[in-house]
Structure formats: C-alpha cells, structure tokens
Amino acid sequence: MKWQEKIKNLTKNPWSHLIFLALLLALFYGQTSFNLMAGGWYQLFVEKIVDEGQIDFSLPGFHGADFITLPIYYFFRSSRSTAILDIAAAFLNIFLIYLAVKEIFKNKKFGIFAAYLYLLNPFTYANAFRGDHHTPMITFTLLGLYLLFKNSKLAFFAFGLSYISRPFAVALFPLFIYRNKIRQFILSLSIPLIYVIAEYWQTGKIMIGEHPDFTPANLFSLKRFALNLIYAFQNYFSVHNYSFLNSVAPGDMIHLSPFISFLALIGILNYKKYFPDKKLFYSLLISAAIALFIPASFYHLDMWYLWVFNFLLILLALPVLVKFTKIIPLVALSFFFQFFYVYLTYRHIFWNGYGIFLIPGAILIVSLIYLASQFLANRQNNYNA
C-alpha cells in the first residue's frame, strides 16, 4: 500500500502534472525542425541592434519580445535566437497558466486543468520554431494576470510587454476594473504608447504587425464584422474543415475544441450555479466579448489573433468541466483534431512523422486513469458507508 500512497500523493501534487506536461512538450519539440519563416524579421531586428547598434522599426512585426531576445543573441550569436526565446516561453507558459488560473479561481485543480488544456492546443506553441513571438505574448499575458491577482505593482509592466508583442490582451481591461487596478491598466498603456511614438518618429508611420502595407483604413472593415462573427461562431462549434463563406485552410480552423465552446456556453447560461463570484463572471464575459470583437472588426479574421478569446472561453468552461469529470476523456479526445490540423498545416515544414500525436494520446490516457481513480474512490466511499 505504500507505493499506492506514494502514487496518490504524487498525482495530488500540481508540480508533478506540470513537469509531466513539460516532458510532453519536450517530446513535441524534439521531433520538430527549425524554420523561422515570417519570424526572420524579428531575428533581423535583434541582429541589427546587437551588431549595428540600430533599432530599426521599419522591419515588419511587433518587436516587443525582441528586446527580451537581445541577451540570447548577444551571448550565443545564434541565428535562431527568436525561436529559442519562443520555445523557452512555451515551456514557461505551462507553469504560468497554472499559477494565473489558480490565482483567478483560488483553486489548484482549475490551474492544473488549464495547463492540460494549454498543451492540448498545439497551434498555441507549434509555431515557436517560427520565432514570431506568439508564445512570449502568452507568457507576458499570463504573467500579467498572475501579478494582477496577486496585487503586484508590476502587473502593468508584464501587460505592457504583452501589448507590444501582440496588442490583444488589452481586452482584459474589465479584469483590471474587477481588481480595482485601473491605474495599473493606464500605466500598462504607457509602454505601447512609447513604442508607437518611437516607431512613428523613426519611420513616419505606424507599422501594423508583419504587414507593412496595412493601415487603419484597410485593416478594419465594418462590412465584414458580422460575417466574421458568423464565421467564428460556425468554427467554434465544429471540428470540420468547412465554411459556407469560403475555403478554409487547416491553420485557419479555430484553435480550440468545440467541447470547450459548449462547456463555456453552459457556464454562461448557468453562471449563478458555476460562478459564486458574479463580478468575476461578468468581468470574464465582457473581456471575452471584447477579445472576440477586436479581431472580428479586422478585414481578415485571423485565428492567431483569438488566443485571448480562447483563453477566456477556457476560463468560462473550467467550472463546468471540473463539475462533470466524466466527460474529460471526451474533451481530451476531441483535441486530436487540433493536432491533425496542426500536422496538416506544418507537416512539410516541421515534421516527417506522426510522433506529435503521442501528446494527445498520453493526455487521453491520463484522463482515463483520472476517471478510473475517481470511480474507484467513489465506490470505496460507498462501500465504507
């Protein structure tokens, strides 16, 4: 019985789960090849600072995370420095999402479940080898949330770095109100303000991400806003690669399981049951609406711009998922579609085999073991009663 107790204690330790997930992520990256692709702009930005002493804002992209990349390139002179940062951020996100969600809900189990769901979304971290700083944006956002709910005065700095990596975490403004930290939000805006002023001073224009030809005039489209919302709604409740609006590439399918969408919808419709803290619920709901409406207002609704919305859907779904543990294996199984889509998107670039499917397979097995342990524990309790 001693070994059984040891295993039981091990499974109850959150860090055991996080280390297990980190090992799975290492397995994922261990069979992936480098290809900077669009991330080459970010690498060039870093190299120009170190090698030429020049900050060149004319290079496309949001370069906030590039300033964090500088020490990596300075000491190692690696042509893949931006990808190295992104991979390190992907690992760090496993631990940060646990810490952030645990603080938001004051519940360790919620944090563990969120960490598993993070790893079940391969699009979130698969492009780290591209070095385009999607994963550092997530890192800064999660760190900002953790600091915000820990009442740290440094939350604004983490959020500010997130904004100049990708600006979508600004949708979390209602959570600043919920925490009575409006001053922190205002301070967080000072960082992108300084960035934009410096960029405009040097180039005479404001660069919009990796698209130098974009301007506010052609970035936004009110005519497509409703169509984008319909398209998003159809995608969030399906797993297939079809849209009645147009042909959809695998990478442009929604980066989430429809099970999470349905669970979030249940949580929203029954919020009085699943959210004891009503102010937190409304803050999450309004943040989710903003996080969807901002990308939907663009001419092209890019699925990569919806990470904040996806994360908020997970937060809205977690109370329901934790309540109905019997469906956890089904939820895990549904994410095989995400790995299938990420495989179709990058198979000729990153992978030659099917090893990445070991990750959802391993998590599915863990979910079945968890469900079996719950069943045996309940049966033992009924027997003792």
Task: Provide an overview of this structure.
This protein is an all-alpha fold and 385 residues long. It has helices at 2-12, 14-30, 40-52, 66-76, 81-105, 108-119, 123-126, 134-149, 155-163, 173-178, 182-203, 216-219, 222-236, 258-269, 271-274, 278-296, 307-323, 328-334, 336-346, 358-384. The protein has one domain. The protein contains 20 helices and no strands. The protein is globular and about 75 Å long. The model has no long low-confidence stretch (mean pLDDT 88).
Outline the secondary-structure elements.
Blueprint: H1 2-12, H2 14-30, H3 40-52, H4 66-76, H5 81-105, H6 108-119, H7 123-126, H8 134-149, H9 155-163, H10 173-178, H11 182-203, H12 216-219, H13 222-236, H14 258-269, H15 271-274, H16 278-296, H17 307-323, H18 328-334, H19 336-346, H20 358-384
Helix pairs in contact: 2-5, 2-6, 3-4, 4-5, 5-6, 5-8, 6-17, 8-9, 9-11, 14-17, 16-17, 18-20
Order of helices and strands: HHHHHHHHHHHHHHHHHHHH
Radius of gyration: 21 Å
Strand content: under 5%
Q: What number is the mean pLDDT?
A: 88
**Overall number of strands:** 0
The biggest beta sheet is recorded as: none
| Fraction of residues in helix | 55-70%
Separation of the first and last Cα atoms? 21 Å
State the oligomer: single chain
The general outline is: globular
Put simply, the count of helices is 20
The structure class reads mainly alpha
